[in-house]
Fold this protein.
Amino acid sequence: MWIYVLKRLLQGIVTVWFIATATFFAMHNVPGDPLLNDRAVSEAIRINLEAKYGLDQPIGTQYLIYLGNLVQGDFGISFTQENREVNDIIREHFPISAILGVLAVVFAAAGGILFGALTAIYRNRLPDYIIMLLVILGISVPSFVIAALSQLTLVTLNSAVGATILPVAGWGTILHMLVPALVLGLGTMAYLTRLMRSSMLEVVNSDFVRTAKAKGVPPARIFTKHQLRNAILPVITVLGPSIAAITTGGFVVELVFAIPGLGRYFVQAVQQLDYTVIMGTTVFYGAFLVFMVILVDLLYGFIDPRVKLEK
Amino acid sequence: MQDASSTEAGTTMDTDSNFATSAGKQLGLYALYALFGLSVLIYVLSVAAGSSGGSVSGGAINIERNSITIVLTEEPPQLDSTRSTDAVSFIVLAHAMEGLIAYDDNDQLTPGVAERWEIRDDGATFWIREGAKWSDGQPVTAYDFEFAWRRVLDPATASEYSFILYPIKNAELVNRGDLPKEMIGVRALSDRVLEVEFERSTPYFDKLVAFNTYYPLREDFFESTNGRYGADADMLLSNGPYVVTEWIHGSSMLWKKNPYYWNDQKGFLDEIVTAYITHDVNAKLNLFKDGQIVETSLIAPMLPTAMEQRWQIDRFMDGSLFFLEFNHRENRITGNWNFRRALQLAQDPSELVYKVLKEASYLPAQSLFPVWIQGIKEAFRKEYPAPEHKIDVERAREHLELARQELGLEEFPPIILLSGDSPLSLLAGEYYQELYKQNLGLELRIDAQIFKQRLAKMTSGEFDIVMAGWGPDYFDALTFGDLFASWNLNNRGHYRSEEMDRLVSIGRSELDPEKRMDAFGDIQQLIHEDVVIIPMYERGISFVVDPRLKGFKRRSVGPDVDYSYAFIDTTED
C-alpha cells in the first residue's frame, strides 16, 4: 500500500513538472507583451523593467531560474501588483476560494446524492420529472446567468422585506457564503444527480438486490446497504476532480459576489499577461488537482472492497 | 439505520410502491442527517472565514459614524505614488496624498501643500505651508518632494510615468542613466522652499505638479519599509485628507480621516469603507439598489431601471477620446493622404454614437481636443471651433480613386483594422467594416486583440488603422496636443510632420497664453487637414449617487472619483 502511495506521489510530481513546463512555454508564446502599458516608456526604462523581472535573459535560462525557484516554493513577484509576492496572493486568497468551494461541493454532493436517489426511487413519476427538468436547467444555464439572477433575487427580496436578510455581495460572514456557494455548486449538483440516478437504476436491477429481496431483507436495509452504497461509488470518483474544478472555477461567482478569492487572480492574470501570477496559480491549481485525484483513488480502497491498492 | 416500516408481505416479494415508500422514508431520514451535518459545517466554515479576512459594512451611509461605503473596481495595484500608473491606485492616492497644488471641487487649481508658488520662464519656486503634516505628525518639507522626484527619475525605479517630470532640467538625461540623479533641477533650499529649474520654459507646470507622480515621499519612512513602500496599510505614509488604516488585500480597505491634515475645507467624512472590490457593473448596481454603496456607474441597458427607481442620474465626461489612428509608416496604404481623406469623408461620428453604440453619455468626437479642455478664457472648443465635417461619399470616392492611382494599385487589398476585444470595440469595428464596404467598396479586416497584444501590434506597426484611445494626465490642452509630435513615444502610428513638431514646441513652451492657444488651434486644424486620425467619440459616464451624499465629484482629469470634498447631508430625511 505504501509503495503504491509513493508511486502515485512520484507520478504526481512528474505531472506537476509537466504542467509547469507546458504553461511556461505556452505563456511565453502567447502574443502580447506583459511590460507594455497605456503610456509608452523609453528604451532605458524598458531595459530596467526587463531586468527587474529577469526577462532580459534567454528563455532557456529563464526556464532554469524559474524551475530553481519553483523547487524552493518561490513564485516571484506579480507583474501587475508589484508589491505582492505570488506566494502571498495564493496564501491570502486560496483559503477563501477553498471555503467557498468546500461548501459548494458539500451542497452539490448532498443534493446530488439525495435528489439522484429520489429520482431513482420514483422513476418515471412526478418527482422524477420535476427534478430531471431542473437538472437539465442546472447543467445548461451558465453560472454567470444564475449568479446574476440570484443576486437580483436577493435585492428584490431585501427591498420587499425592507431589511438585508442576506447580503447582496461581499465576504466575511456565513450569510455572505450561502448563495454564492449554492450557485457555485449548482452545476455539479445537477451533474451528480444525473450520475446518481443512472447508477442507482443500474444497481436496482442487479442480481444481488434481487437476492436480498428474495431473502426477505427489509426494504430500508436493501436501499441503504445494497443500493445506495454501491450506487454512490461513481459519484465519489468524480467528486475529487469536481472539488478541484469548483474551487478553481469560481471566477464568475467571485466576480459577481465581490468575493476576494483566488479565481479572480487566476483569470485576470491571463488577461493581463501577468507571467508570475499565471505560473503560480496554474502550478498551484495543477498540483491541487493532481493531489485530489490521488486522494480519491486512495479513498476508493477503503470504500470499495473490490479495489486493492497493490500496484 | 434500522427501518421503521415493516414488510407485511412476508416472504413474498414487495410491490414496487411498497419498496419505494420505505426507501423514500429512509432517504428522508438521510436528508435530515445531511441538513444537520451541513449546519455544523456552515458554522465551522463561518469561523474559518472570519479569520481569513473580509469586512462587513454597515450600509451605504452611516450617519452616526459619519462614514460611507464605496466599491473599488479592482485591488489597487501600486500605491507607491512614484510608480503607480492605473486609475484605481490614483483614486486611493488622491485621498491619501496631496501634491504641491491640487484641484478644487470646481476643477480649478487650488493651493495644496504649497501655500503659494511662482512660475517663471526658467523655473519655479514653491513655498510649503507651515501646517502641512504627514499622518505621523511630522511636517511635510521641501526635501520630501526633492526625494520623491529624484526617485521617480532614478532609472532603477523604472517609473513608467517619469516622462511627466521631463520639463525639469536634466530630468530626461538622468532618467536615461546619462547623468547622476543629483543633477536633476530640483532643490530644497530649506524645509519650506522648493526650487525647480526647467529644461525649457513650461508655463503649464502648475497643472503638472497636481499629478500623482509629483506627490511627496519621506525618505526615512521610505527606507524603513525595505522596498515594500505602499504594499500594506502600515507601509504607506499619508499627507492627504485620509489615511489608509486597514487593507485586506483583494477584499476591503478602510480610510480614516487624517487628524493631522491642515485643510478644514476637505475630508469631512470620518471614515470611507471600501467594502467591495469587483468590476462587475451589474453587481455594483445591485449593491447600490440594496443600499450598500453610495455611488455606481450606469451603462446604457441600466438606464430604464434607474428611471423606474426615480434616481437622479448624473453624467460627466471621463476625459477620454477615442479615435481611428492611421499607420503613417511609409510602406502603408494608410500613409497616402488621399486614402485617409476618403475614409474621413465617408464617415460620420454622430451615426456611430447615436445609432450604433447608443451610449447616452457619449459624445460624437469632432476634434483631437475634447469639449472640456480649457482655452484662454473659456472652453477651448468655443474659442477654436472644431473643423467642419460633413459626410460626403461622392468626394470620398474621388479621393479613393486618386489614392489608387497614386499607389499604382489595381484594387485595394484588405485593410487591417486593429481593435480591442471589448463588446463596444467589436461593435464599432463591425460598423466601420460595413460602412466602408458600402460607401467605398473597401474590405476591412478586423483584428481584435487583448489589450497588451493590441499595444504590442500598435508599437511594432502591424496594422493599417487602429481603434485607439487617449485619456488626459493634466488639465491642459497639451495633454492631447503633443500626442502626434514626432518624438512622442505614444505616437504609435508614426505620424511625422515638421509643422506639427513646430506647433507642439510652441504649445509646450510659449509663455504668451494667446500665442500658445493659437498653436493648439492650428494643431486641431492640422489633425483634420492631414487626417492624422478620425475622431470617434468622447466617453461619458452616467452614474447615480445616494442623495444624502453631497460634494461628491467625478473628474475628467485626475482621480475619476473624488470623495475628498464629500459630506453627508443630514438636514433632509
User: Anything to note?
Assistant: Chain A touches chain B through 78 residues (CB under 8 Å). The two ends of chain A are 8 Å apart (CA to CA).
